[in-house]
Input
Amino acid sequence: MKTIILLGGAALLLAGCQGQTDNQATSDDMGDNLAMSTPNAMEPASPVAAAEPTVAADYLAQAGAGDMFEIESSRAVLDKTGNNDVRQFAQMMIKDHGKSTEDLKAAAATAGITVAAPALSPDQQRMLDEIKSASADTLDATYVRNQKAAHAAALALHQSYAANGDTPALRDAAGKIATVVQHHIERLDQMPAG
Output
């Protein structure tokens, strides 16, 4: 049985392995899954090339960190924005990414995998810090730009695992989550850039 240690905190995901086998990875092996952003809030972030995982532990680590970023960045923007569209989108992110976390936990349980709390990648932490420190003039644009980058990476992650993942229950969940992420991207494309 694959084991992923539960570390606590907001029921979010991160995979770590005990008693590794050849098809399991440690957290040191897991790549960053989000895009790097630029200091200028008006410039689009460009995705960072990351290996698309086919092993459950890698997928859960990246998906969990992605959900954590979405939830934490949305909470941060809710504290400061006056833009109703941004507020509605942020509230949707908290709800939908909380649900995807729960869906992945349920799928992992079905597969006999214990789920753990995530850790943000350095790029995710940098983007979260950008949102938290953004001025009133750049907050909404910074949030939207970083959401676009995060969602592009999340869509690639979930679609890839749905097509090539090693655990059927997680593949099914990934396919459903990819549909939700695509909807988020469509909403982001309708939001003003600045």
